[in-house]
Amino acid sequence: MTLQPILAALRRHRLATVLIAMEIALACAVLCNASFLIATRWRQSQVHSGVDESSLAVLKLEGYEPAEAVDLNARVLSGLRSIPGTQSVSVINAVPFGEHAGTAGITLDAAGQHFGGVVDFYTGGPGSFQALGLQVIAGRAPQPDDYQPMHSFVPDSATVLVTRALADHLWPGANPLGRQFWVDKFHFRVGGVLADLARPDGGEGGPTTIQWSVFVPAQPGAQLSGVYLLRADPAQLPRVLRDARDAIAKIAPDAVVDVQASQTISRLRQRYFRQDRAMAGMLLGVIASLLLVTALGIVGLASFWVQQRTRSIGIRRAVGATRSDILHYFQTENFLIVTGGIALGMLLAFGLNLFLMKHYELPRLPLFYLPIGAIVLWLLGQLAVLGPALRAAAVPPVVATRSV
Amino acid sequence: MFAYYLDMALRSLKRNKVLTALMVLAIAVGIGASMTTLTVTHLLSGDPLPGRSAQIFYPQVDPDPTSGKQHQPLDMMDYRSAMDLWAAHRADRQALVTSSALRLVAPGVNRPPLMAQMLSTTADFFPMFEVPFQYGAGWTARDDADRARVVVISAALNLKLFGGANSVGRTLHLKDTDVRIIGVLAPWRPSPQFYDVAGGRFADGDTAGFYAKPEDIFAPFSSSLEINDGAFNAFTCWSPPDPGVKLQDAPCVWVALWVQLTNPAKVAGYARFIADYAAQQKALGRFVHADDTRMFSLMQWLDFNRVVPSDVTLQSWLALAFLMICLFNMVGLLLAKFLRRSGEIGVRRALGATHGAIFAQCLVEAGLIGLLGGIGGWLLTLLGLWLVRRQPVEYADLVHLDAAMFLLTFVLAIAASLLAGVLPALRASRVAPGVQLKSN
After folding, report:
1. Are residues B225 and B23 in contact, defined by beta-carbon separation less than 8 angstroms?
2. Is the peptide bond preceding residue B192 cis, with omega within 30 degrees of 0?
3. Rounded to a whole number, what is the distance in Å from the CA of A52 to chain B's nearest CA?
4. Which residues of chain A make contact with B206, given a CB cutoff of 8 A?
5. Which of A31, A36, A44, A62 to mutate to test the interface with B (most CBs of B within 10 A)?
């Protein structure tokens, strides 16, 4: 089928053609970027926390005097261990997706000249490393004499475990075991490498730094108290957590349970990503409405054109065009317009992506989104024009002979 | 003539109900989405102190001795600098602000102890920020100096503990101290909680926390340091604090200073004052950098901290792009609608209607569709805002459709459809009567 007559016909209806093309172009730009946003957020929400989320819960106590902290730890640990179903109770400062407790900038030299990044420090008492279920891929897990007392937010000097992502960032390509880093006067030596350990509550540096954590074994005391890690069988965990919350009233009556922060880690994870889920839902709604509105626009305009050209369609049928010729004519016409719109839409999509990159720290749009967007819009256009095109094909040749 | 055009428009709309419904729906959906996101953005980025915000300033000095390439003052001040500047009383009003949490027991009320948020501030806070009282009043400068054990509680706490009654004179047990309630606030919900805003530029756009409800308890700064000793958290420290060193002497920043300056001469004077203070401290050896003092106004400080969550502005842009698509749609459908009636237009022109008359009548029709779309858009906006209120974010309960946004809904709908109708109306008015009268 030659394109010449189709293009000639379109040139006579320039305004409507440009309108559909602009609509398709805008739809392409929004579609590509919105799908990319959804994919990015979804990928971020699939982050590996590195811990056994389904078996762990955290209990947070507040409102007690720091001088009573050691006594509180002892009472709470022995009291909670007696709850049936509890596999272990240990003291820790924070958990993945919970509130952050030990965020600090690290340097690669004692003088503090080579800045390494801002990381989160997990300080855990005896039993916490095993309870978390962290996977060690190099070096060794903390030994009993690695658990040092703390006088500040971390011990003065400790053998620690870092995540693989953090080790690759600080010492790319080199063996991290035995390496050292500092936080001002605090000195750390890498004794092991973990596969994954997500930071609590986001952190400075954006989603690419979500795995920048350090596990520091430490002795519970005045500086490490109030937050307790409970491990139980996944089926029993909700009941164990409820029993633990109720037991605190008897074990430590003057402490206040922070109900918001005392949840299972699965629940904390759900809450952490709820904003991303809401955003993804809204974007899906926008994409659906967008496609619907664009389709309706094409249907409306195509119906109008068919009605306008009824006479010429009749003439064509009278001189020998078949029904499928007419159908293909309208489908090809729609294909050409949508192609023009997509060509402009690709440029708009890139422009929109550059804008989003600058203001919302989105990564660059991968190229494969453009052909996918193009195919979706082509399909949409063809489906939308099918109805009016079939109606056009049904115009009988006798219309050509009538003068009304 | 307008009534005649309106009558014609109504008839034409009724004649082709499907097409009309499509157009009204397209405009309604576009307006609904845009107005929902615009309303949320408007509520979150508004002025929390209308009429007063131009007089409120946030002075900053740089006590951090570590030399970095940033060389900007930290978001808060350390204890010495804040107390020195506040005690100088150089502004019309000044208030120190910091917050902490502590255990609260209400004697005589049968409730378990709870953790309350306490705002430690000075007497000027209440008049400076126009905080409304329901019962009682704030404390005086004398109470600040005497470290009096008095507090003001929020409406929410009053409701929770005492059922909303007049609780002035009652006692609360904060940690180990008994304090007396001397004032109860009326419901107060500034958007954002501007006096607590700091560090927003490090939050990566996740700033919904700045729109939380105000603190439960307001206590004099000097008293609260004694009541809640040891439980104040630093905003940040430039070197790790030694354990056992009180926060007042630690290398940390944790206190904010707000001042009210009622005319530009005083503003310049106060800026000079903090610069002189920094130079003096540098001479004394306490400061290293004396040239980076700064004083933002309230709105500048909120902008600097990027308080509007980035998700909210992103949604606004998306909604506007969606509205554009709906508009293009409407242009096409209006074009179809008007040109379908070419015969009728030809007859009218032959009978003496001018180009302008046809143009005006087509615009009235577009405007009428806009009005109907506006009504649909208003209903969809109410639905959209209801959905936003169900989201688990801190600003969810702030979201409602106020009078300005309600008017804007209709103005936007009618303006958008008039704009969409211009091109089709032009085309329709240029229809040649002769051709239309001859053919069928």
Report:
1. no
2. yes
3. 26
4. 202, 275
5. A62
* Whether the Cβ atoms of residue A190 and residue A158 lie closer than 8 Å to each other: no
| Domain housing A71 | 53-272
Q: Which of A38, A115, A304, A404 to mutate to test the interface with B (most CBs of B within 10 A)?
A: A304
User: The tokens 């009043």 sit on which residue?
Assistant: B137
Report the gap between the CA of B52 and the closest CA in chain A (Å). 30
Q: For residue A396, with 0-12 CB atoms within 10 Å meaning exposed, 13-18 middle and 19 or more buried, which class applies?
A: exposed
- Say how many CA atoms lie within 13 Å of B338 toward its Cβ: 27
Cβ count near B345 (within 10 Å) = 23
Orientation of helix A14-45 relative to helix A323-360, angle to 10°: 50
Residue among A19, A206, A256 minimizing CB distance to B115: A256
State the Cα–Cα distance between residues A311 and A101, nearest whole angstrom: 77
pLDDT of res. B394: 85
B33, B310, B332: residue with CB nearest A300: B332
- Between the alpha carbon of residue B45 and those of residues A87, B393, B403, the distances in Å are 49, 16, 17
- Residue bearing tokens 């839902």: A281
Q: Are residues A181 and A208 in the same domain?
A: yes
Could you read off the pLDDT of A101-140 as tens digits, one per residue?
Answer: 888 889 998 887 888 889 999 999 999 999 999 999 999 9
Q: Tell me, yes or no, whether A11 and A113 share the same domain.
A: no
Judging by beta carbons within 10 Å of its beta carbon (0-12, 13-18, 19+), is residue B112 exposed, middle or buried? exposed
Handedness of CA A239, A241, A243, A246 (dihedral sign): negative
> Dihedral of CA A127/A129/A133/A136: which sign?
negative
Q: What is the pTM of this model?
A: 0.81
Query: Which of B272, B304, B336 is the last residue in one of the domains?
Result: B304
A92, A125 in Cβ contact below 8 A?
A: yes
Domain end: A228, A253, A272, which one?
A272
Residue B194 belongs to domain spanning: 53-304
How far is B7 from B172, CA to CA, in rounded Å?
70
Partner residue facing B423 (CB), from A15, A152, A274 = A15
Task: Identify the CA nearest to B27 among candidates B265, B381, B269.
Answer: B381
> How many CA atoms lie within 13 Å of B428's alpha carbon, on the beta-carbon side?
32
Examine the domain organization and report whether B17 and B100 are in the same domain.
no
Q: At what angle do helices A310-318 and A323-360 cross, to 10 degrees?
A: 140
Number of C-beta neighbours around residue A364 at 10 A: 11
Q: Tokens for B104?
A: 């609260």
Chain-centroid distance of CA B431 in Å reads 51
Q: B26 and A301: CB-CB below 8 Å? A: no
What Rg do the C-alpha atoms of chain B give, in angstroms?
30
Contacts of A380 (CB under 8 A, 6+ apart): A291, A294, A295, A298
Q: What is the pLDDT of residues B122-149, one digit of tens each?
A: 999 999 999 999 999 999 999 999 999 9
